[in-house]
Amino acid sequence: SLARRCHHxxxxxxxxxxxxFCAFLGxxxxxxxxxxGTWCQHWRGGFSLDGSSRTxxxxxxxxxxxxxxxxxxxxxxxxxxxxxxxxxxxxxVLHGSLALGAFVLTVLGLAAVFCFxxxxxxxxxxxxxxxxxxxxxxxxxxxxxxxxxxxxxxWAPAWLRALxxxxxxxxxxxxxxxxxxxxxxxxxxxxxxSLKNGTMEYKLLPAEAVFAxxxxxLILIFGVLVxxxxxxxxxxxxxxxxxDSRQVRDALGG
Length: 254
Description:
Transmembrane segments: 12-36, 56-78, 98-119, 131-155, 167-187, 207-231
Helix content: over 70%
Main location: membrane
Number of domains: 1
CATH topology: Four Helix Bundle (Hemerythrin (Met), subunit A)
Number of helices: 9
Order of helices and strands: HHHHHHHHH
Shape: globular
Membrane topology: Multi-pass membrane protein
Distance between the termini: 35 Å
Keywords: Electron transport, Endosome, Glycoprotein, Heme, Iron, Lysosome, Membrane, Metal-binding, Oxidoreductase, Translocase, Transmembrane, Transmembrane helix, Transport
Largest sheet: none
Subcellular location: Late endosome membrane; Lysosome membrane
CATH class: Mainly Alpha
Radius of gyration: 21 Å
């Protein structure tokens, strides 16, 4: 029917190939990292390890790089078509390594903000941003440890992997969105604290506020696009015994 043809045509128009989508997403992630670095360098005084506000500046850079961009890359590993055939172990190692790298950067980012607070006599863990951020990191650590035990250790039984897999996938997307929410709330909190006492107030929307708000929107868009890619049925790795999987193997092999 005409309606069915129109629906098929509109669906085809919205069908974006995975690799160009990933290239765009990678460029967006690099842009987020470049912008948070530029913000801290240009408006916040740069970087140092002396316990001053320049030590704090490592916190947003490491958090955006690790907890959002690198974590998002780790989440998308199994959506790469090359992972749909052949041994899974190399891709498991890559997925786990990217997630571990993200976790290491995140811990260093936490260390930077705690070092800054302690050197300045500022209390720790008093804001919603800090509660949400630390909760996200703790959940991330549990996720990585459970994933390592279930999917990388050879003695994990198959029934345990099958039981835990949907839980692992769910919390993967959840942690990413919590990371985005933590970063966005942290940007807003920093602007409220910084744009006063001799600088143009936040409510007057100086250039720094426009720049940082744009950064927050780009981080949000990055997170939403990663979650959308994870939820897209046609980009999911077929189960090893499913007809779709056998068709993929035949196509790749032939």
